[in-house]
Design brief:
The structure is a homodimer. The first copy, chain A, is mostly helical. Chain A has a single domain, classed as Farnesyl Diphosphate Synthase (Orthogonal Bundle). Helix content of chain A is about 70%, strand content about 0%. The first copy, chain A, is built from 15 helices and 2 strands. A two-stranded antiparallel ribbon of chain A has the order 1-2. At the A-B interface, helix 2, helix 6, helix 7, helix 8 and helix 9 of A face helix 2, helix 6, helix 7, helix 8 and helix 9 of B. Chains A, B: InterPro entries: Isoprenoid_synthase_dom_sf, Polyprenyl_synt, Polyprenyl_synt_CS, Prenyl_diphosphate_synthase. Chains A, B: Its cofactor is Mg(2+). Chains A, B: This is Farnesyl-diphosphate synthase.
Chain lengths: ~300, ~300
């Protein structure tokens, strides 16, 4: 984020604060444990704490702020969504899936612990995400809490993240080219649905009017798609030093991405179009949404 | 169940009806799908449909009936709990866990499909269980639905099923003897919590008075413990033909069970004590709970 223009210093600060607060929340919600389950808690903490941009958690906090939801309230939901996201990374990294040894420069969970512990830590993080959302501390109104659970379950299930990962595994096994519409659908399911929900969750917590809720969901949808193409662009064009991770992975793995299909210039213009479209959904929210606008710009400007 | 006394014909019929109804509910809740996710839905259906005693689902239905909850309503919750249970079996069977090739005489999911699909099908079944519970069709009152989600999440998480499985993996790796209290705690977490919740869920759906809810939870707790010892007794004493599955597994695996620790006679008397204790919790419910009483007797009398 060092290459962001100075005007977005406010975004940089807000994202760093959100990441720190989310880590504190996770530290409380997954406390170190004693006894024979200690290893499971250790693995859950290792998988979920101290890393990543916290894009999803930041979206929850910043969208909830539009409706004056208390930060401590929103932090529980932000942490729950980050738990869900962390679980998906742990399982995606497994030998039978993408078989990755490193994640954000650290050994993946099945490397740092073992495969059985990684499967269980992912499973337990998913359950814990729902547990956190369902507790009264998350929101006094049970109707709000159940709406959060319902939307998280949909985003995580077979018509969301799991469905997208299944498509991804099958596409890789088949090895053939994919059409643009297929790649778009795969990414919408695999990562888009959860990002969309993260933005919408702020509106749910704030009991926002449906119009606002739909606007934020649409913002999240376009933002997620822009981020995904920008990720693929980074993978195709950055050095590992710049990106902070191994690059050129997609091409080496023969992975179908929009960048591979459309070429760099068209992929770049598509990510710009999506970011502009994401920002346009925020018109109903006025100046208060400026950090969300800056986030859309950051999605395509970032170098890591 | 063929060796059950004739007096329990009513239980046999009720359990068979429940199993058939739960399969119909699962067939509707996890419909066959088209397109690239079809394989995921196929694996979820394979894992969850057409097998097992449906102990957990039957408990939901029969406990809900105590409070005149409509059967169609209770069936959604029964199916959700069976989805959660099915997911736990799929992941427990994985090569990195218990590495089982057969489950109820059929190839396990990672054998019939592949490992990645098995991990994803388990993940998606867990998400779907929460999705089903959170939908308005499950109960008109959001406070009831969130209470179901909360209790399921707790039973499934690191202080429930996942914690128990972690203890189990560690105990097997360590190979040393376990104390009675440890084995009891392991089994309470690994299988007990979900069975307890299945019984309690009926009371939650029926908005039963707290006294009744606690009585059913206690019934589920003791029943689950009795079932577990009876399972271990069957493993230790039955022929594979009688049990319908490979037996003598626990001893061969050096698995710590109460049967191994206490010996057959004491384990048998402990399962009888637990079944009687389970039945005693039903006193507050009167004659209407006779099938639940029969179930406690069946827990320790069954031959498979």
């Amino acid at each position: 984020m060092d290459t962001l223009p100075a005007a977005d210093e406010a975004l940089r600060v807000a994202m760093a604060e959100a990441a720190a607060d989310i880590d504190l929340a996770l530290d409380m919600l997954i406390p170190p444990s004693e006894g024979p389950e200690a290893r499971l808690f250790d693995a859950m903490r290792y998988a979920s704490m101290g890393g990543g941009k916290r894009l999803r958690g930041f979206l929850v906090l910043e969208c909830a702020r539009q409706f004056s939801v208390g930060r401590d309230t929103a932090l529980r939901t932000a942490a729950a969504i980050e738990m869900l996201h962390a679980y998906s990374l742990v399982h995606d990294d497994l030998p039978c899936m993408d078989d990755d040894d490193l994640r954000r420069g650290k050994p993946t969970v099945h490397k740092a612990f073992d495969e059985a512990t990684a499967v269980l830590a992912g499973d337990a993080l998913q359950a814990n995400a729902f547990y956190v959302l369902s507790e009264p501390d998350t929101h006094a109104d049970p109707a709000v809490r159940i709406e959060l659970c319902r939307n998280l379950a949909r985003a995580a299930g077979p018509r969301g993240m799991c469905g997208g990962q299944m498509m991804d595994m099958l596409a890789e096994a088949a090895g053939g080219p994919m059409e643009e519409a297929q790649i778009g659908r795969l990414q919408m399911l695999k990562t888009g649905k959860l990002i969309e929900f993260a933005a919408e969750a702020g509106a749910i917590l704030g009991k926002a009017p449906l119009q606002m809720r739909h606007a934020l969901a649409a913002y999240g949808r376009d933002l997620g798609a822009a981020f995904q193409i920008a990720d693929d662009l980074l993978d195709a064009t950055s050095s590992p030093e710049e990106a902070g991770k191994r690059t050129g992975k997609d091409e080496a793995a023969g992975k179908a991405t929009l960048v591979g299909l459309l070429g760099l210039p068209r992929a770049r213009s598509q990510s710009q179009r999506l970011a502009a479209q994401a920002a346009a959904h925020l018109d109903v929210l006025g100046d208060r949404a400026d950090l969300l606008r800056a986030l859309a710009a950051y999605a395509i400007a970032r170098r890591n």
